[in-house]
Design a protein that fits this description.
The structure is a homodimer. By secondary structure, chain A is an alpha+beta fold. Chain A has 2 domains: 12-316, 2-Layer Sandwich (BirA Bifunctional Protein, domain 2), CATH 3.30.930.10; 323-411, 3-Layer(aba) Sandwich (Rossmann fold), CATH 3.40.50. The first copy, chain A, is 41% helix and 20% strand. Chain A has helices spanning 12-31, 45-52, 78-88, 131-146, 162-171, 179-188, 194-201, 205-215, 219-230, 276-280, 296-305, 307-321, 335-347, 361-370, 404-411; strands at residues 35-36, 42-44, 62-64, 70-73, 96-100, 103-105, 117-126, 155-161, 237-239, 253-259, 268-272, 289-295, 325-329, 352-354, 375-379, 385-390, 396-400. In chain A, helix 4 (131-146) crosses helix 9. The model of chain A has no long low-confidence stretch (mean pLDDT 94). Chains A and B meet through helix 1, strand 1, strand 2, helix 3 and strand 5 of A and helix 1, strand 1, strand 2, helix 3 and strand 5 of B.
Chain lengths: 412, 412
């Protein structure tokens, strides 16, 4: 009676927590002029193989469908984005500012912060190669966290530039076919012994270590930090050239967002990928792009570990299921009258509940309390008057049934 | 570059339309005291086989995962609901009023109103066998449509009772193992020639046709209609004993919702299923239940075909992406000042956009219009004053930058 390993059931409280995260994500994205879109959970496997090479298949929930198609549950959104943008881009003004909250799936060993599914906010800005696009997208990533109450003391955007490294490799006459492997070595250098990295880098070890130890300067990144400074967000960013990001398709600025304490996996990551749409559309459509993804699992952990962030969100969550009104039917002969009013009250937009069968008055009040109702209405001997009880203060009053809505409008 | 057959891409307008439907569904469900939950997209195939028999597998997107598990993309939510409720029911007060909006998948021939995926609102009321539970759940189904503006002239709930038929079969000494097949014949009778049905029914043809032609009376259903009458919803319901619903697990009242014109497939369907949770949990947990499902595809078609319903929803949809403010940067040297203010305006909760690179003033105003911005702010020669232009009226005024927020608060 368990879900599959790595998959989550969302009981009402979990679901409300998740929805509260999604709602805030949507609000911030819309504040930036981003619009939501979505794509299918299932796509042709070829789409992912084309982007990431044949090795990706080992990590997919993939299969042959009943129509003999090779299909896979989406491990990420970007290939679908490229597919949809290549097909429809002519219908839209540039730049496209698109976001989506897909559920993504990977068949991987489960670890802390990594399940076999997660929801992943994707924000992509397509069709603009200005450096201001990076500024806009990184500011968005930061504001998505600020919206929960996170400060620069708690989270940091580590900023780098793949082009800085490819320039260095080019200057040193390293053949292009070795770049991808060397960039992976640099990406991993933080997590490996220095000697291992040195061996893998060979001749390049000295210049690379010099950069990693703070000797590198990138005017492009300094200008980008300057943009974020104007926005008042510079405290959140830190140039860190050791970030390269494993994915081969990034072409320029890359960044990852972490908790400052460094206890969790990356909260978000992204960068510029100017060639991907062209690659995935066989050159049909070529558009520069910059974007990032932020998962719900790591962010959820960080929220839960940060009391000053968790408490206000928990309050929002509890409000989501709170009732406005609970009807207490003290006499069963009043049930038809109550039923009539239930409908009117709900039509008014209030959240209303009541006991579907006969129950003791005390038990009905308990339900009202359990469901955080703000007001209980008592249908009993006083009819055609109704007793209004404000649940927090305990204040009670009698109101004629026909004036009930007016009075409730004042109270709610 | 197409999605798989039967799967939808949601471009921004489609996605906003879908989200507007979801938002209204959530609002109405919460008005009834229902809380949202969710379950995994992928479940053990055994869960569906157990509920629906081995034939169901032919309609599934099912496969063997990399851990040698038989898994399937959920074709419906109820088996997951039974799984989760059986596991966690002790943690909740009864009745549970739960809703969810899962995406469900079936490998079927595509037809109008039937794709290979759809989103399906599920509402279930669990742990209450009172007839009032049916009243509550059917009222909810009706209010979900009323919330879009549908009237009793446009939609109808066809109401029936499986128990009425099983009582009839019992009275006529029909062995129980034949019931399921006979009920299916009755269910299909509307869509088949009378003679075909008559042959299949044999001795039962006469009494069954007598009922189908209006000779049947059900006190239970009359009482239920009475409940809905008290709520002012009786115009929406019609007792129709020909509705049996194919699914074998219903135990009592069943209903289907249709457009009155009868042009589309069922908009929603459901009923009482008191034995299913016990069956799926191997008798571990036994709880009476009543619920229904409403898909987004048929409802979406009906909305689009009903101008008086579509127009107000389209307005909501267009609002979802409308900007509050567009910044027009008339002089590039003003960009840093504009950038500073973009952040402040967004922090204020307004939806703000601007051109990321230099562009002609006219083109920037075009963008403001295309994004339905209510206000354009002009950063140019007037700095440190900003020109405010109200896009609808064309009214313009100059405001000192430090008083901008105050003035915008008045205008927005």
């Amino acid at each position: 009676m368990q879900p599959l390993p790595g998959f989550r059931d969302f009981l009402p409280t979990d679901c409300a927590f998740r929805n509260a995260i999604f709602a805030r994500w949507r609000e911030v994205c819309r504040g930036y002029g981003f619009v939501e879109w979505d794509s299918p959970v299932l796509e042709p496997t070829a789409l992912y193989r084309k982007k990431s090479g044949p090795e990706i298949v080992a990590q997919l929930f993939n299969f042959i469908d009943k129509g003999e198609r090779e299909v896979a549950m989406r491990p990420e959104l970007t290939p679908s984005l490229a597919r949809v943008v290549a097909e429809h881009e002519r219908a839209f003004r540039k730049p496209l500012k698109w976001f989506s909250i897909p559920q993504c799936f990977r068949y991987e060993k489960q670890q802390r912060g990594r399940l076999r599914e997660h929801f992943q906010l994707n924000c992509d800005l397509i069709g603009d190669d200005a450096a201001a696009a990076e500024g806009e997208i990184i500011a968005l990533a930061i504001d998505l966290l600020r919206a929960f109450g996170f400060t620069a003391k708690q989270v940091v955007v580590r900023l780098s530039d793949r082009e800085f490294w490819t320039d260095l490799l080019r200057t040193r006459n390293v053949p292009e076919e070795q770049w991808s492997e060397l960039l992976q070595v640099i990406d991993k250098s933080e997590r490996e012994p220095r000697e291992t990295t040195a061996v893998k880098l060979g001749d390049l070890a000295d210049p690379v270590f010099q950069v990693l130890e703070g000797g590198g300067r990138s005017e492009k990144l300094e200008a980008l930090v300057g943009q974020l400074e104007l926005r008042g967000l510079a405290d959140f960013v830190q140039v860190d050239l050791s970030i390269v990001r494993g994915l081969a398709y990034y072409t320029g600025v890359v960044f990852e967002v972490f908790d400052r304490a460094g206890k969790l996996r990356a909260i978000a990551g992204g960068g510029r990928y100017d060639n991907l749409i062209s690659h995935l559309s066989d050159g049909l459509v070529s558009l520069p792009a910059v974007g990032f993804a932020m998962g719900d699992v790591v962010l959820g952990e960080l929220i839960k570990e940060t009391p000053e962030v968790f408490a206000p969100l928990a309050h929002v969550v509890s409000q989501q299921s709170a009732l406005d009104i609970y009807l207490v039917i003290a006499k069963e002969e009043r049930r038809p009258d109550a039923l009539r009013q239930v409908q009117q009250l709900r039509d008014h937009g209030w959240r209303v509940d009541f006991s579907l069968g006969p129950a003791k008055v005390g038990k009905q009040f308990q339900s009202a309390e359990a469901m955080s109702a703000r007001i209980a209405l008592l249908y009993g001997d006083e009819w055609p008057q109704v007793k209004i009880k404000q649940m927090t203060s305990g204040d009670q009053e009698l109101v004629a049934a026909e004036h009930l809505n007016d009075r409730l409008r004042q109270l709610l």
